[in-house]
Amino acid sequence: MDPLLSAGVAAATIVLLFAYLFRLNNIISQTPDEIAKLSPTRWTSAQLRETYRKLESNPMTTKSYAHRIPPKLERRYIVTGGSGLVGGYIVLQLLERGQPPESIRIVDFRPLNRRDMIGSPAATVDFVQTDISSEVSTERAFSKSWHPSVAHLPLTVFHTAAVIVPSERSKLVYGFCESVNVSGTQHVVEAAQRAGADVFISTTSGSISIRRIEFWPAPWRLLAKSGWRPKNFSQVLDEADFFKPIRAHDDFYANYPASKASAERIVCAANADGFRTGCIRPANGVYGNPTDNTVGGPLNRGDLPTWVSHVIQSFVHGINAAIAHLHFEAVLARPGCSASAPQAGRPFVVTDPNPPITYGDLYYAIKTLAVTHFRTITIPPVIILLVCHVIEWYTLLRVKYPVFCTMLPPITGDAKFLEPGLMDICTHLVASNAAVGRTVEAGGLAYTGVVTTLEGMVQEVMEWNHEHEEADAKGTKVAYHVSISLPEQLQKAGAGMASLRAAGSS
């Protein structure tokens, strides 16, 4: 081929590629009109500062909303993941409504690290460090004897423990999620049955219903068709998928929701007259403590690269998710309740009692209110999309061909989360309380959230400020272990145990 012709073809190809990527970037940087209508107003500086002022005078505590917590039941409680976000709020709410500390047991991999728990009666609750991926460890935690004053009471288990690996999607790296979220749930269910529990409620995830986005159309469709957008670019988080056969692994956006869907089926399949079960699916983005990923993650970073400021999503405060669990228990623990109750053996999605917001609202709240440095660095989403595919390819290369592990360093830091699954979960996701909010007679849980997203996020920033101002006064620093770091801690612990076992057998 003539060199000039070859150069022309190459130049035309590059121009078309850039035109394709430019057009795709423009499309995924927009908010569909039908989604924008669900969140028509943005938070203002005056609104944020007024909410902050009110919460400083009257902060939300378990005492301030105690009248909204379902009444005390004469029961014992095991809370797996009770040191975490949702599990921690369940423990705090149980104590607030009058459950004695000796009637509650926290079963978790990590000891208490939330400041609101360490400085409260929650610090006196029995804690059993447990790895639920181990059947022996789980059984040991559940078979431990109880204080004589409560040993005779019926047992409720709230299973909130899980690992969140947000973006990995290949079956080649599914083993870790499966060992904790699937096998771990099986271990907890079986241990609960042996321990005599008659109510079992698990935290799963609203992300179970999310489908992968089809980002890469044929060029002629993208460049020629007006109004085109990726399939599944906006989605509704509901429970409809549960009432159909479970989807194939590749139909989930990542390994995490695939594992949670399998765990959910285990829990709901165990539903029986003497062991009523159910699941709560918190909407995408659970927050409520500086250790969370949704608000605490940006606060901890300071400089935040982002491509999602325009994205509209539903969020749920840990307080609301926890209260939903207690509403579920109130239904399943009713005298005469059977496995055939309409609420038993099924999941319910739960979200905050307000319309969805944008990530831009969250970022603006932090920038307006936080005493620490915060700024966003906007990156075109198509660049992130391309980087995600490169990082996934690189990571799987090391998995498929172990020889490369000695030649190629692993991806570390925040970059390791940049895989295509992250793009699927960072899209427009809207949830509804329609099913969970129905009356008990109508098959719901009579749930109503007690914290709005505005109140919850502003209070979290306020708590962050107070802790940092106090630390500055003492000349110390505040450190948080965000929940997304738990998988790495578990993997390191698992590797350490494997080394010890190997040394012991040599």
Automatic annotation (TrEMBL):
Family: Belongs to the 3-beta-HSD family.
Species this protein is from: Apodospora peruviana
PANTHER family: BIFUNCTIONAL POLYMYXIN RESISTANCE PROTEIN ARNA, SHORT CHAIN DEHYDROGENASE_REDUCTASE FAMILY 42E, MEMBER 2
Molecular functions per Gene Ontology: oxidoreductase activity, acting on the CH-OH group of donors, NAD or NADP as acceptor
UniProt KW keywords: Membrane, Oxidoreductase, Transmembrane, Transmembrane helix
Annotated GO biological process: steroid biosynthetic process
Pfam families reported for this sequence: 3Beta_HSD
3-beta hydroxysteroid dehydrogenase/isomerase domain location: 78-206, 251-366
Lineage, uppermost ranks: Eukaryota, Fungi, Dikarya, Ascomycota, Pezizomycotina
Protein name: 3-beta hydroxysteroid dehydrogenase/isomerase domain-containing protein
Transmembrane portions of the chain: 6-22
Domain of life per record: Eukaryota
